Amino acid sequence: MFTGILLASDGSEGALRAATVAAALANKFTSRLTIINVFQPIQAYGPFREVVSPAMHEKYFRELKESALAPAGHIAEEMHVPYHTRQEEGHPGTEIGRVAAEEGCDLIVMGSRGLSDVKAFFLGSVSEYVVHHAHCSVLIVR
Question: Model-level pTM?
Fold first, then answer.
């Protein structure tokens, strides 16, 4: 039924629940599983611009990758599901949709909450954005 599944992971509890569901579906349908993490770059303004060096940015990028992708990958491995990972930079909703199309995925799986309620109120929910803009089916795991 599904040939390609994109799992969006930010390392949150909801993302780990979504990882379990995505891996189970990938196992059942022998689907390709791609695990993606999207982060927004550190915005440094004014006198602090020089404080964020390229080395600090790279360290931040690596730490995010480890905290967001590794736990979801461990779940896939425990369920004997092959996968590959991608880490992208930009607006999470936009990048999730772009990568799903680029990878030929026909299902996006993600948790319902990644941000705190306050941040989601001001910034909007990534899952809500993906549901309304994705080219394929979206499964939101609670």
Answer: 0.84
Domains of the chain: 4-141 (3.40.50.620)
Q: In this structure, which long-range contacts are made by residues 15-19, counting pairs with CB atoms below 8 Å and at least 24 apart in sequence?
A: 15/68, 15/72, 15/110, 15/111, 15/114, 16/71, 16/72, 16/75, 16/111, 17/111, 17/141, 17/142, 18/109, 18/110, 18/111, 18/139, 18/141, 19/71, 19/72, 19/75, 19/76
Give pLDDT tens digits for 78-99.
999 999 999 998 999 999 999 9
**CB of 86 closer than 8 Å to CB of 33:** no
